[in-house]
Write a structure and sequence with these properties.
This protein is mainly beta. 14% of the residues lie in helices and 46% in strands. The chain is globular, with a radius of gyration of 14 Å.
């Protein structure tokens, strides 16, 4: 819990957020975890970037945690299929929206800055 909170408050300081298209980074993996991206399924790795339209899949006994660019934190349990359909976070341009679909399994999602910014727009 302490690690997740520390990463939550670190926010944009993670080097994986430097790429233009990335919407988040994987911070925790246990067991089998895959990313379905552009019709390919690849094993997920620590510190790997996540992108719009990525699908994360945890297998039996698998789990994964990620921090998104607005400091939202996700935690997927075993046998979870999560689609990161859309994630736009550009407060300067007042472009803020997200669509995350859980197709099966369990997910904990702590909203970050997107929640506060949306209320002000």
């Amino acid at each position: 819990m302490i690690v997740i909170l520390a990463l939550f408050f670190m926010g944009f300081s993670h080097p994986a957020f430097a790429a233009e298209r990335g919407i988040g980074v994987i911070i925790n993996i246990k067991g089998p975890v895959f990313i379905e991206r552009e019709k390919a399924s690849i094993p997920a790795k620590m510190s790997e970037q996540l992108f719009e339209k990525d699908i994360t899949v945890t297998g039996e006994g698998g789990s994964m945690g990620a921090v998104l660019i607005d400091n939202s934190v996700t935690s997927s349990g075993p046998n979870t299929r999560l689609i990161l359909s859309q994630f736009v976070f550009d407060p300067a341009e007042k472009k803020i929206s997200s669509t995350v679909q859980i197709m099966r399994g369990t997910l904990t999602y702590l909203l970050g800055l997107i929640q506060n910014m949306t209320a002000r727009l």
